[in-house]
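Record 1 of the preview.
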Amino acid sequence: MSHYICTTCGTQYGEGDSPPPSCAVCGYERQYLGWDGRRWTTLAEMRAEGYRNEVRHLEPGLIGIGIEPPFAVGQRALLVRARAGNVLWDPISFMDERVADQIYTFGGIDAISASHPHFYSSMVEWSHTFDNAPIFIPRADRMWVMRSDPAIQFYEGNLVLFPGVTLIQCGGHFPGSSVLHWAEGASGRGVLLTGDTIMAARDGRYVSFMRSFPNLMPLTASAVERIVESVRPYRFDRIHGGWWGRTVAAGAKDILERSAERYMRAVRRYGRQGQGTDRVSQVWAAQPRTS
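->
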């Protein structure tokens, strides 16, 4: 019996003697089936194939953990070393013994959470390695948990994990899409960890928003407005996205506001040029909802 991992999205499934017939995460419209078709692996196979973890110190109190060679969608995890406890954000699919030992020297992991279901990956494996650390998942995205476990706790709205460390449910990319606010980050100016709920552009001067990045499906103006409103009460100067280099180093709150205004102008302009209404909103309003 093994816990099989989808090689396209990196999601680990519950125990079975053979791979699942399909990946529910990749089968939904936000994700995709890989060029090589449906493929599965396990942690044991990944170790045998030479996968390893890469650790980078991104700023005081924040450590990035990636996979080499890149796996699934290529994201990396973030370990927040807050004064009140350590949080693993956006856990990745693979963990080697060396990185586990390193994290224990940093104080272990006290809580685990993720920006959205594409980054749930092997979150239960991480929890079991670190004394069954609790995993906090938005109730709105409960259907996308493919490996159930007593460590998983479902929440609604925003959730304060520790003083100065808050999960903010923004919606948009998924119904429960969230970001993590770390008040101590950026030398006390505040940091948002966003996955791709708020996607940092490559040049760091803008951010953007999508229902699906790989399938180029936009969000409505109202969804983007909700995302911005959800983080507006919080102080932050920096954004760390879900991949190496996807960082807005300074002025992130102003950049977020400016980027959202630009995005909303674009989708509203499309509506005026189409049928005199926000055609994008009409299209998405007609889409079937699963949660």
